[in-house]
Amino acid sequence: MKLFGAVYRSRLNMVLRGSDNKPLVSLPRLAVRDVLHATVRLASGFCQSLLNFFNMHILAMHGAHLPSFFRRIGTILESMLPGSCALCHGDSQHAICTTCSLQFFANIPVRCEICGRRMLHVHAKICGICLRTPPAFDATIVACDYAAPSDMLVQDLKFRSRLPLAQSFGQMLANAIQKQIIDTPDVIIPVPLSETRLAQRGFNQAGEIARSVSRHTNIPLQFQMCVRVRDTQPQARLPIGERRVNMRGAFAVQLNASVRNQHVLLVDDVMTTGHTLNELAACLKRHGAKRVTNAVFARTPEK
Ligand SMILES: [Zn+2]
Ligand SMILES: [Zn+2]
What we know:
binds zinc ion, 12 helices, globular
C-alpha cells in the first residue's frame, strides 16, 4: 500500500511539475486555464444578466408585494458576483469602494438645516430663503452636492439601471441621517414616480435608495403610502419659475394609510429647487404628519 502511495505521488508530481521537477507550463495547461477563465466570465455575465432581469422586472415592479426573502435575492446574487467600483473600476463588493467613498463623499459642508443649501456662515443654521418663506418640510439631510462625480453616478442609476448604486447611496444617506438627526423618523416614504414614468424606467430610483436607507437605519419603509396622481413634466426640463406650478396637486396620500402624528422621512435621489419635496411635504402635513425631513443623496449647488 505504501509502495502504491509513493508511486502515485511520483506520477502526480511528474504530471504537475514535469519529470525534472521544474514547474511545468505547457500549452494544454494554458488552454485549460483560458477555458476555465472564459467559463467563469460567461457564468458571471449570465448571473449579471439574471440579476439585472430580476432587479428590472421583478424587484422594481413587484418589490413592495414580495416577501423579504425574495427581495433579498438580488443582494444575495450580487454578493456572489465579482464586483467593481463605479468610479475607479477597482475590485469592490460595493458599487462605490471605500477609498472612493472617503475621497469624494467624506467632506460634509455646512448646510441650511431646513433646505440643505450650502451656507457661507458656519454659525448660521437657517438660510435667508427659508427664514423669509419657510417651506412645508422641516429639515433636509444631504449626502453630497449634485456635481462631478455624483451627477454621473445618479445618471448611471437612473438611465443605465445600475441598481447596486442605490444601495451605496442609501448607505451614505443612512450615515448622514445617523449623524445629523436627533429625532428618529417613524417612517420612510420614497418620492413616488408616476405610473407612466415607472413603466418607462422599470424602477423608482428613490424607492431603491429608500429601501437601502430603511435597511441601514431599521426605520420602516412605506412604499405605497404616497402616489403621484398627476403626470408631471420632468422638473429638469422646465424653467425654474414654472416648476412650482408643475408640481401643484401632483401627490396624494393613500386613503388606507395614515401619517397622522408621524415624523416622515422623504427620500429622493436629487433635490434641485425643492418644489417636488415641498409639494409632497405639504400633502403629508395636510394629512396630519407631525414633521417631514427630506433625505436626498445629492443637492444641486446654488449657481
Ligand atoms: Zn473606487
Ligand atoms: Zn434654507
